[in-house]
Amino acid sequence: MPLSIPLSLLRALGAVSARRLGVVAFLLLACSAPVFGSEAWLTDYDQALAESTRTGKPVLTLFTGSDWCPHCRTLEKQVFDSSAFSEWAEDHVVLLMVDLPQSGISPAVRSERSQLCVKYGVRTFPSVLVLNAVGEKLAEQKGYRGASAANWISQLAGKLPAKEPAKESEGELAGPVFTTLRAAVDSARETQRPIVLVISGSTAKVATSRSATLVNDPDFASLAAENFVVAALPASSAEGGATVDASLEQLLGGQLEADAVEVIVTDDGETPVFMASGSQSPQRIVSGLRRFLVARQTARRPTGTVR
Length: 307
Prior knowledge:
Blueprint: H1 7-12, H2 18-32, H3 45-55, E1 59-64, H4 70-80, H5 83-92, E2 94-99, H6 107-120, E3 127-131, E4 137-142, H7 149-157, E5 177-178, H8 181-191, E6 195-200, H9 205-215, H10 218-227, E7 229-234, H11 246-252, E8 261-266, E9 272-277, H12 282-300
Parallel strand pairs: 1-2, 5-7, 6-7
Antiparallel strand pairs: 1-3, 3-4, 6-8, 8-9
Helix pairs in contact: 3-9, 10-12
């Protein structure tokens, strides 16, 4: 929405140079844009997911139009500027703002943020999404109808999954998490265990965050400590460069997209015997690994053996 300057003000500024008038107009525009009460809002999607992985908190993602959306400004003033929201957010969420103003951002940034809108099907402004550390949508609130800060927080919090209390021992593996395929293969030969490879498409933030989320999951760590050798490694560099380990491309059956994660079980580092997409939740991947172990044990049981 264009900024409208009253005619009387323009006349009063008649003697002001064009340069100074431009400065005044800029200041008026700046004053009309929202200023969030919390300084903790991130604007980088990858950074927010990485912070979610580090803290275990979901990402509250605001899609807004700071210089044209009146409902966005009202939501900001009534909810996000409140002390109630600041206190709640500090303990419960990572804050991410995806702002699509009419002006003031580069075409590259606009394209990147627009792609996020497409990715999550956002067509209403404001929209608030809650994402987990791998970018999966957990909850959503569209628009703003004037709810108080307390009621708005209560409505959103009621849509979030219950958070399990963290324990210091959770997520720790009995053995090391290897960072090369060769080291994992050597360990597998010594221990006679299969290898679980958590392969991220690259060393970029999204992929490494997804990989870390799985490796640090308590159920995955417990299952791996008893049954597998674990290696977490990238298939390529952050810039999409050459494959870090040429054997990985053979295991993957081709190249892996930069933000993707693949889970592969192999006995020898050359032939996959189980594969799962890392875009699934850790719970689903762990369930798949458990089914694999049961099937493996059944296949190796001598014919005619009575349980």
